[in-house]
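To assess whether ligand presence alters the predicted conformation, the chain was also submitted together with zinc ion. Input:
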Amino acid sequence: MLLHANAGMGSDSLIYAISRWLMCQQPAGMKSCGSCHSCQLMLAGTHPDWHKITADKGKNTIGIESIRCLTEFLVSHAQQGGAKVIWFPAVEALTEAASNALLKTLEEPTDNTYFFLECRDPASLLATLRSRCFYYYLSVPECKTAISWLQKQKISLAQVDIETAIKLNAGAPLAALTLLQPENWLKRKQFCQSLMQHLSTKTLLNWLPELDQPDAACRISWLISLLLDAVKYQQHAGNYCVNQDQSSLITKLATINSVDILLKSATEWQNCRHQLMSVMGLNQELRLTSQLINWQNALHYHN
Ligand SMILES: [Zn+2]
């Protein structure tokens, strides 16, 4: 099974629960029993037929050696009786050679063997790999459902805050829950407040420290969503804004930027974010500074 899900959708928990059920020697309906030998091994995290395949040590890819070891293990333990589960929490990490090696195993799996391939972006996988899997997309819940679930998790913030956190995370409830933790939510509030302040005093360059943080990629995403909200506001589609809790900031952005500048800035920030995430050794502070200068110059030109 190729399970496609956004971050924060609980796909790990889902796969673990299904695995527990598959491994259990006496499952009760849809649940594992929790007490058989197999369940005890699973609970201890030491089941020999349960494999979690992650990136090689010190790398962010899964190489062909890992797949060879796995295949050898499956073949030599084929006659053990119980189910075998192989879980790839991020199948995008497979190198091309490793993907090709895995194809053969997927085509002719050993008995009672289950593969769970988890991915965020199926388009980045080899088409031949995708075509050998059952594809399942874990869709996000309706906003109403996510709000009521979050309220049950002792999130005591206003509904507008909860809704904003859900939308900022493309509907994924667990990711929203993390963002709504007091220290994280405060961070985002401060981010927005300080942007408002620096836009008002026309000192965008001094906003740099708010961007130049270890979680810069996330902060740039927040900024992009604010820029796009400002476009929606200009087009009288304010109801569709993501950052419903930031109406004065969105109004401000929409007032001082033309639609062209907003869209151009959003694209440029997207490129900047992509570079920061993918180019090794790129100087984050310099890259962010140059992008802020671009944006500030565009604003001056407009004024
Ligand atoms: Zn059991």
